[in-house]
Amino acid sequence: xxxxxxxxxxxxIIHIRGGIVIDPGHINRRADVLIQDGKILEVGYPLKQxxxxxxxxxxxxxxxxxxxxxxxxxxxxxxxxxxxxxxxxATGSASAVAGGFTSICAMPNTQxxxxxxxxxxFIVTKGKEAGKARVFxxxxxxxxxxxxxxxxxxxxxxxxxxxxSDDGRPVMNxxxxxxxxxxxxAFGVPVVDHCEDLHLTDGGCMNEGxxxxxxxxxxxxxxxxxxxxARNLALADLTGVCVHLAHLSTARSVELVRHAKAQGLPVSxxxxxxxxxxxxxxxxxxxxxxxxxxxLRTDEDMQALRQGLVDGTIDVIATDxxxxxxxxxxxxxxxxxxxxxxxxxxxxxxxxxxHDGVLSLEQAVDKLTRAPARLFHxxxxxxxxxxLADVVIFDPExxxxxxxxxxQSKSRNTPFGGLTVKGKVKMTLVDGRVVYDGR
Amino acid sequence: xxWKRKDLLTIGELSVEEIELILTTAESLKEVGGRDIxxxxxLRGKTVVNLxxxxxxxxxxxxxxxxxxxxxxxxNFSPSTSSxxxxxxxxxxxxxxxxxxxxxIVLRHGSPGAADHLARFVRSSxxxxxxxxxxxxxxxLLDVYTIKEQKKQIEGLTVVxxxxxxxxxxxxSNIAALTKLGAEVRVVAPPTMLPxxxxxxxxxxxxxxxxxxxxxxxxxxxxxxxxxxxxxLLPSTREYATLFCLTPERLxxxxxxxxxxxxxxxxxxxxxxxxxxxSSAAVILDQVSNGVSVRMxxxxxxxxxx
Lengths: 439, 306
What we know:
By secondary structure, chain A is α/β, with parallel strands linked by helices. In chain A, about 30% of the residues lie in helices and about 20% in strands.
């Protein structure tokens, strides 16, 4: 990533051996991986290249483990600039690689908002300085994400933004959203929408349903998401531009997208691990670490999201990593901010779908690597020869107990603390450098 | 049956036996209010703190009077006029109060779950005096006490709760208490004022007041919170009064001898006509005096005096 480390990578050869390589769509078998100059040189078994007993060759033993492209997250919040007490680009990207993520896309709701080239360049520079995961900024759709005037999208893309979104402050004005889609077409960047009708949400802070009624908590109806999903599908049809729907949470959203895809509309969708792993029941006891937006829904929604992953309605798994400080999550439930950290639990939760027989291991890896890289046109997510040597090595079977105190993230806000999960990241490489070693 | 809880947070968590213990304890303490010297020494040397984050006169006064009749020292703390304005959190405020050796903290707060939240952080006993739209357990206990006083038993009665159930902690606590004790509970309101899945709380749902009144033993009116008018819940106070004001004519639809309750303060002419509020069917002032007995009973039980 930065100059020094790429020089270091240049003169070294890494030989990862003994594992099973899953490069979705290409390889799914026992194979070794050879890395040279920070790029994939060869994947196979036995290797065709003959290796000399070279002092600079590093052997990484991956026996019994999975070797896959480094994970790609299209949706995270790194909080810098502006909220460094929650997370910095350095701590966020350290958390990412600890979770196996080598490429992460940072939402623009920083302070100031990433709606201009200076902020974008700042994020890119900080990401490189951190030297962990690749950090790809997402620019704002509108100035200050106020939902009124378009941001300088051309300038943002020129400075390195890979997509645009007003995540967290959804574009409520449908005309502005239409213009954003049309304008973005010229730059080929995806437009990402957090689908939420804020009028329907009306101050709600958990799923509106049986549990909210029992707890006396203002609810967010599923319709709040669905009316905006439906709007965005209509706008995708009108403009011919792909809308990427962030973190779907309801059964009807999945159904709407399935129907739209069957009609050939340009649309893609993501789901977060928490939405396919737990339900609104997790809120009982007023657990602020189970508060996020969109909220945890019902078991029926959870099953529909899983089915959406299976049949391809939902293209990718994204974390929506959203760190908040302890004192913020210690507030009363309705006063606490929305969001949970996600990098360091995403892989085991996704592997939970494999252990439950919902997805094959290759499908699961695909939703975290190749599929997201393709959606945002990122030059990663593959182990083909010549690719950037971004690699995750994990043990799919190892059980461990989630301990938030051990997180690399600056924040600890997760509802999964104490949960026994299966699947542990052993090593993460970026540009052929080991950036995380969890052996 | 002995009392074991540290806190009183919700009706939902209480067993029927616990509710009955509170009611019988209240019955035996009621007599204190009729004495010349209205005081017993049960809580002498104990400190009760009324921590009210929302404005309240009658509930706070009722708790204060209950504590004083038990000889406790009472502190009233209204954080809107103190440190909360400076950004102190609920937990820090409460820990400060606890450090002053408070035995019982009576909490009213706008956030659902606030009492539950507080109880996990402090060793003092916590009484929930209303948490957002969630629960107001002492109101339900005094309501149940009043109904029992009038009707001898709860089981088999039909009770209708009228008005903004969605935003009412009084309604949630009463539905929980009355269904536990074997009453049939109806709710009636414009559908905008009923929460999703309200029937899962155990109530039958009505939208027309006249139908809902048919054959009921108890009519429990909720106060119309006028500040909600702007939230597209209701067209106007006038239309609400036309559809939901309890008038003498409507009272005729209930079972003969039906009683009328209201947690106060009344909007006369909006949800209740003066002719009904001042009639012999109304037990609104009994609710107020029973409130003191029930709160005395709770503090007595929570202080471990039993």
